[in-house]
Amino acid sequence: MINQFYRLKSPRTFDIDFVSEELEENQVIVRPTFLSICNSDLKYFYGKKEEKVLKERLPLCLIHEAIGSVVYDPMGKLKKGTQVVLIPLIEKGKKSCIKANYLPQNRFSSSTAEGFTRDYVFIDRERLVPFEHIDEKVAVFSEIMTIGINAIQTLRKYKDSFSDIAIWGDGNIGYAIAVLIKYYFPDCRLTVIGKSGTKLPFFTFADQTYTTEELPKNMKFDCAFECVGGTQSVNSIEGILEHIEPQGFISLIGLAEEKIPINTRKILEKGIVIIGNNRADRNDFLEAKKILETDEIVCSRIKILCSDVISVTNEKELSEAFDIDINNEFKTIIKWEV
Fold first, then answer.
1. What is the largest CA-CA distance in the chain?
2. pLDDT at 258
3. CA torsion sign, 251 to 291 to 195 to 231?
4. I need a labelling partner for 99 at 20 to 30 A (CA). Which of 137, 204, 280, 323 fits?
5. 14 falls in which pLDDT band (50, 70, 90)?
6. pLDDT class for 268, splitting at 50, 70, 90?
7. Domains of the chain from N-terminus onward
8. What tens digit of pLDDT does each residue of 300-332 get?
9. What pLDDT score was predicted for residue 197?
10. Average pLDDT, the chain
11. Phi, psi at residue 275, to the nearest 5°?
């Protein structure tokens, strides 16, 4: 079958490639329906990744947050039209003591493997999570939810509950994690710290919100999530170390392209536990589905992440969607109609 791949050839330039594909054993053909633009996609689009990375990975289909509709399942297990969440993690190996999303040989769509900007996706059935009773504009955010689920579930291996939790960062990841913290730890006091305060009013369910300048110096937390990333993570980590209680827990989620200095003296003095978190595996996607199917409050809160829905019918409109997303408060959903 001849498939059309909408690949980023160079920063700000998408083009169509015609690719001959054959359906492999255990694969299903899925038509993408809704896609969500991630900050990582924006970095590729605007050429803000390292030059070496751009040369190695482009041309590349972007987008790893996607849902779709089953077109053909040779085994007949998934009926035509079944809605599915597409899992971006591609497992090339397994190790019982290491989660799949941390194994270096495994690949990830729109990073080390093709993303989902294609006419059709030929995909292993294990990378599909069927759903029925979830709003499409909420289901497409399953992937961003799994990042928080992975981080929180890892944290719970160390401690069952927390009384005072803080989130540094009021962007997409910070918002999704805030929603999940209130789901998993409903009795905790949740504080969200943002940079400018323009997004903080969206965190209506948090117990309190502050800009970094407003945060009281004597406020303390037993757990903090760093969701800022980039060069600004230097300041957010330093702020967390000032406000974290001795023997508290720090969950690092924000990604920085550059090397970031960390105050190890403060970490040692306080006996802090720092946990790194990245991406998610199939179990995290199943957990996201369970939450979205059973908790209307979470669904209503996650839906706020949708700042815009844009129909895309060609590569020019795909570029325009990225330009629109850069100015949106939260996330841009693409209705894939190419």
1. 63
2. 86
3. positive
4. 137
5. very high
6. very high
7. 2-143+280-336 (3.90.180.10), 145-276 (3.40.50.720)
8. 999 999 999 999 999 999 999 999 999 999 999
9. 82
10. 96
11. -120, 125
Which tokens sit at 34? 């809704």
d(CA 107, CA 25): 19
Please, what's the b/e burial string for 254-288 (b: 16 or more CB within 10 A of its CB; e: otherwise)? bebeeebebeeeebeeeebbbeebebbbbebbbbb
Instruction: State pTM to two decimals.
Output: 0.96
For 309, list phi and psi in degrees, rounded to 5. Answer: -125, 120
Q: How far apart are CA 172 and CA 145, in angstroms?
A: 10
Contact present, 301 and 330 (Cβ < 8 Å) = no
Per-residue buried b or exposed e for 217-236, using 16+ beta carbons within 10 Å of the residue's own CB: eeeebbbbbbbbbbebbbeb
pLDDT in tens, 176-213: 999 999 999 999 999 999 987 899 999 999 999 999 99
Cβ-Cβ contacts under 8 Å for 286 (sequence gap 6 or more): 129
Whether 155 contacts 275, CB under 8 Å: yes
Encoded tokens for 94: 């397994």
Cβ-Cβ contacts under 8 Å for 247 (sequence gap 6 or more): 270, 271, 272, 273
Cβ-contact 331, 172 below 8 angstroms? yes
Cβ–Cβ < 8 Å for 85, 70: no
Average pLDDT score over residue span 130-150: 98
Mean pLDDT in residue range 285-314 = 98
